[in-house]
Amino acid sequence: MTASDPMTTPSTPPVPSTPPVPESAPSPPALSCRGLSKRYGDVHAVRDVGFDIAPGEAYGLLGPNGAGKTTTISMLVGLIRPGGGHVRVCGVDLAADPMRAKARIGYVPQEIALYPELTGRENLRFFGRLFGLPRRALAGRIDEVLDLVGLTGRADSRLKTYSGGMKRRINIGTALLHRPDVLILDEPTVGVDPQSRKAILDGVERLVGEGMSLLYTSHYMEEVERVCDRVAIIDHGRIIAEGTRRELIALVGGADKVELSLDGDLETALAKLRAVEGVIEAAMTGAASIRLLTEGGRYLLPALITAVDGCAAVTATQVIEPDLEATFLHLTGSTLRD
Amino acid sequence: MWRALAAVGALELRTRLRDGTALVIALIVPVTLATLFSVALGGDDPPLRATVGFVDLDRGEFPASVRREVAGSEELKGSVTLRDLPGREEARRALDDGGIGAAIVFPAGFSRSVGEGRGGDVAVLTSPESPLAGVVARAVVDRISALVDARTLAVRAVLKAGVPGDEVKELVERNGAAGPVPALEDDPLSGGKVDLSVHYGSGMAALFAFFVAGASFRGLLTERKLGTLDRMRAGPLAAWVPFAGKAAVGFALALVSVCVTWAASVLVSGATWGDPPAVFAVLLAHVLAAAAITMLVTSRVRTDAQADGVIMVVSFVMAFLGGSLVPMHSLPGVLQAAALLTPNGWTSTALTGLAGSGAGPAGSVGAVAGPVAVLGAIALVAGGLAVLGMKKGTLL
Fold first, then answer.
1. Of the candidate ranges A138-152, B174-188, B297-311, the one whose mean pLDDT is the lowest
2. Does residue A224 sit in the same domain as residue A261?
3. Which of B106, B95, B97 is closest to B131 using CA atoms?
């Protein structure tokens, strides 16, 4: 079996849309915002944005340039005072008690917000002190973070000598120093090579797996699809859709395409495939290939292979599911990279 | 919060020391320039070869005694020549065409007025082209003023006691009030020499205080560009911490810079800037004002490169108008008035006054309270406007 789109066969098991919360001790959302809005003159940068991120949940914020993602994040981390609405971090109101609320957030800005003339370790030490880590504990925590982002060997080199990917990794590591409950990543893989991107995504997945909540924005749809449990699509300052990947795709109402390569009697195989429950339409597309339109194509594959048993042998399959990109295009009328 | 403040301050200091700006701008350049200017333009020998005009419309004992004293002064011999002129207008014309460097004008009836206890005014005409002649003329008049004050007081006291008018003069002189002899005990040129030495030292100190303090505020814009400022502001610390950490280091470095320039000037030229607590008060107030003004500049520009340019222009304009580069008495009257709009003008005036005043109340902290208060007010206004601008520009 082959799959041309890696996102159709994710390496991680599906994650439930909302992580289980013990009924006896309902904990507040790790990050919650309601009615967030911001105007610059006549321009509404953000209008009535609200969402909750549960503890241990990865939440994606998707939107084209100028959609309001960065303004929203800036309000969530306290860099911009909202024109309206409020933000709570683990139940702490950001406006009422910014010190406590901010102490639970790890913010990774889009740019490499570190000092190029300092070494990686010196950068971490500075921000660790700034965030109030005790001096004695700080050295150990710095080693942990360096290990986590795979930069122990380059810790004492100046940042300006790092590759783009290494800078991205230490940029994220800096936000982890104070063990935040919520990690906010603003386009963390912009301009990095595939190897570093993989390392970053692996690391982010590991952090979420260990229980950290995540707010993730990216231009790369496949990253959001891979990392996030739920996604909000934001356009012109408003959230226009929110849900799990499957819920969002369902908004488009598309069916899966299944391409089969076969050896044998294709006419008989085509008739048998049409009779399988879930197959909406089937057509021969070549001397040894059939295309099907199905509901839940991936889960239908065993039934399809069994159906042609005796008249043809399936030599290859390809399942093409509608993706978030299509959903995004459908909802906003633009692509993410506009 | 203090730990965060210390962390920001330590990083700023380390950055400034590591890139060399602290050492070069705060210490090496101002000290070197002050020394070069002082040696090249100040000099150890009396640089004066001046002619002072003498207008005697009084024909009384005061002008006669001044003429005798100047002619007999060993310090002025060969350096200062008195030239008699018939009137004030002639003296003004001689000044304008460079025939004399300064003029002393005794009005008609001066000696009689003083003798009757009504006091009197002696005018000094100066030219910006010959400042040291002005220093000599003023030194002579200062001595006369002291005598006039003493004589006036004595005469009034005697008259009040009921002594007949025709016996007053004899009684006053017999009982110890000094006669009309303006003894030039000290070298009047020394004031001019101290003036120049202190002028260039304090001028460089005042100028470079802007650059040194400005570098730290400019650093805020660099941090904003790097994104590190937002990263700090997103952390669990008060918004004012990054600003305050940098401001404290910039202020401290600027204060060190002016004090080292002061010490170097004293060691190299041997001149005193005056009473140390008073000098320190003026320098402290100047650094405050310079820091506030560069902070204001930083709050109104967008990039660190713009800040560099504007701070340089502002610093040199303030230095020029305020007498840090060219002595204020060499500037046209309009510019001398404009000097009072700059911190450099008040600093220069206060330090020059202290250097020429010696010990006593005229050289104490109290004597510079006015300029220090003005400098403080400049700092307050500029600092207040800067804070508003910085909040708007998300620097604070």
1. B174-188
2. no
3. B95
**Which residues of chain A neighbour B8 with C-beta distances below 8 Å?**
130
Per-residue pLDDT tens over the stretch B307-317: 999 999 999 99
Q: What residues in A contact B15, CB-CB < 8 Å? A: 115, 117
Which residue among B11, B19, B234 sits closest to A77, beta carbon to beta carbon? B234
Does B202 share its domain with B119?
no
Find out whether B141 and B54 touch, Cβ atoms under 8 Å. Answer: no
Same domain for A72 and A195?
Answer: yes
User: Based on the domain organization, do B216 and B313 belong to the same domain?
Assistant: yes
Is the same domain home to A127 and A63? yes
- Same-domain status, A174 and A302: no
Average pLDDT score, chain B: 80
Contact, A298 vs A256, CB < 8 A?
yes
Q: What is the pLDDT of residue B286?
A: 95
Number of domains chain B contains: 2
Kindly report, residue by residue over B130-184, the tens digit of the pLDDT. Answer: 666 777 777 777 777 766 666 666 666 666 767 666 666 666 666 555 454 444 4
CB contact under 8 A, A115 and B228: yes
Nearest to A102 among B8, B226, B235 (CB): B235
Quick check: A287 contacting B, CB < 8 Å? no
- Final residue of a domain: which of A193, A219, A251? A251
Dump pLDDT digits (tens) for B257-266.
999 888 888 8
Q: How many domains does chain A have?
A: 2
In terms of domains, do B227 and B316 share one? yes
- Token duo for residue A53: 């991120």
Structure tokens at B1: 């919060």
Most B CBs within 10 A among A118, A130, A158, hence the mutation to make, goes to A130
Q: Is the pLDDT of residue A70 over 60?
A: yes
- Residue type at position A158: R
**pLDDT at residue number B189:** 46
String of DSSP letters for A161-195:
GS-HHHHHHHHHHHHHTT--SEEEEESTTTT--HH
Tell me how far apart the alpha carbons of residues A203 and A209 are, in angstroms, rounded to a whole number: 10
Contacts of B313 (CB under 8 A, 6+ apart): none
Asked if the ipTM is above 0.85, the reply is no
Q: Which residues contact A184 (CB under 8 A, 6 or more apart)?
A: A31, A73, A76, A77, A105, A106, A107, A108, A175, A214, A215
Q: Does A63 touch chain B (CB under 8 A)?
A: no
Phi, psi of B297 (to 5 degrees): -60, -45
- Shortest CA gap B386–chain A (Å): 20
- The more confident residue out of A325 and B255 is B255
Flag whether pLDDT at A213 surpasses 90.
Answer: yes
Provide the edge-to-edge strand list for the sheet that holds A31-40.
Answer: A43-53, A31-40, A84-89, A92-93
pLDDT category, A46, cuts 50, 70, 90?
very high
- Owning domain of residue A311: 255-321
